[in-house]
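Problem 12. The chain below contains 124 residues. Write out its predicted structure in token notation.
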Amino acid sequence: QVELVESGGGSVQVGGSLRLSCAASEYTGANYCMGWVRQAPGKERETVAIVYLGGGITSVADSVKGRFTISQDNAKKSIYLEMSNLQPDDTALYYCVSDRNYCPLTGTHEFDSWGQGTQVTVSS
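Solution.
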């Protein structure tokens, strides 16, 4: 199983910015994809951004479009989530995920690998 290690969470005020990082122990497969899933207490799990590493194709959820950007660095086997104009609704535990074949933005897909999670807290 691929090991994913996240970093970069923290506490910010409304309107602030954070950058999350995730390093993977390996990349496997032509359709390998990675992304970020967040879970807030009392809310459904939400996939906020994904990237297919082979072609660099990215997608972000409507709830964060225009504020969050996902990027990759294949040489470092890493992805990043740049978050700006953060709002209290963005408060959640953010997990880095990966899959050998498929990373949907909708639904509750069971990704192959999960990181340990990094907390993002936005206060007003």
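Discussion. The first strand starts at residue 4 and ends at 7. Students who got a different answer should revisit the alignment rule from Section 12.3.
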